[in-house]
Amino acid sequence: MRIGKYLEVQLQAPDEATAARQVDEMCRRLLANPVIEDYRFTLEPAPSPAATA
Q1: Domain of 35?
Q2: Considering the entire predicted model, what is its pTM?
Q3: What is the mean pLDDT of residues 27-53?
Q4: Chain-centroid distance, C-alpha 18
Q5: In a domain, 9, yes or no
Q6: Could you give the number of structural domains in the chain?
Q7: Which residue pairs from 9-13 have beta carbons closer than 8 angstroms and sit at least 24 positions apart in sequence?
Q8: What long-range pairs does 15-19 form, CB within 8 A, spacing at least 24?
Q9: For residues 21 and 24, what is the distance between their CA atoms, to the nearest angstrom?
């Protein structure tokens, strides 16, 4: 059996490495129970404000 969670999080970080560290820490400490769950994430740049207007 497989059960999944899908979350979208927007954050501000000076670079991709910092963003990855922040997301990894959120997953380990808040979003997943690493004893019984695995997790993975992908980083995508936020669309520019001009592209959404």
Answers
A1: 16-44
A2: 0.72
A3: 83
A4: 12
A5: no
A6: 1
A7: 10/46
A8: 16/43, 19/43
A9: 5
Instruction: Give Cβ neighbours of residue 39 (< 8 Å, ≥ 6 apart).
Output: 27, 31, 32
Whether 37 maps to a domain, the answer reads: yes
Give the 3-state DSSP-derived string for the chain, with helices as H, strands as E and coil as C. CCCCCCCCCCCCCCCHHHHHHHHHHHHHHHHCCCCCCCCCCCCCCCCCHHHHC
pLDDT of 52 strictly over 60 = no
CA angle 41, 44, 49 (to 5 degrees): 145
Q: Measuring CA to CA, which residue among 12, 38, 16 is closest to residue 27?
A: 38
Say if 49 falls within a structural domain.
no
